Amino acid sequence: MLLERYERFPKFYASTWTMSHADCRLIESYLEAGNLGELNVLTGEYFASRETSVYATLVGVVSKFNGRLKKFMNHCKVICLADPARDLFITCEGSANFTTNPRCEQHVLTASRDLFEFYANWFERLYAWRS
């Protein structure tokens, strides 16, 4: 929905416990189309052992687009999108993983540079952290 409205976000951070194959390929299609720029992903460590083929696909997408991926004891569901040139900063906090499921989920969308920068700094600290 946000990409339909705003078309492109050069900065993309995503945190999830797990991910489906379909959603991994959807992110790849957005990267290929130029709708997303940087790829920065945090996942739960259980995902890598529980969904090995999906995790391998994600590793391939991250590698293909020179992104970053870190797995650790993570259960956070956050998406941060930004286009600094347009002064556009959106953060989505919610209950849903990157999976297509029939369950009701909640999300909070916030258009705030401060909140985006809070999470971007959190991501950067986690990438620097040696787990």
Give the key terms:
131 residues, alpha/beta, Endonuclease, Chain A, 6-stranded mixed beta sheet, 5 helices, 6 strands, 40% helix, 25% strand, globular
Question: What report would you give on this structure?
Answer:
This protein has 131 residues and is α/β, with parallel strands linked by helices. The chain has a single domain (2-128), classed as Endonuclease Chain A (Endonuclease, Chain A). 40% of the residues lie in helices and 25% in strands. The protein contains five helices and six strands. It has helices spanning 2-6, 21-33, 45-50, 52-64, 113-128; strands spanning 11-15, 40-44, 68-72, 78-83, 88-94, 107-111. It has a six-stranded mixed β-sheet with strand order 3-2-1-4-5-6, sandwiched between helices. β4 and β5 (88-94) form a beta hairpin. α2 (21-33) packs parallel to α4 (52-64). The chain is globular, with a radius of gyration of 14 Å. The termini are far apart. The mean pLDDT is 94.
Write the layout of secondary structure elements.
Layout: H1 2-6, E1 11-15, H2 21-33, E2 40-44, H3 45-50, H4 52-64, E3 68-72, E4 78-83, E5 88-94, E6 107-111, H5 113-128
Parallel strand pairs: 1-2, 2-3
Antiparallel strand pairs: 1-4, 4-5, 5-6
Helix pairs in contact: 2-4
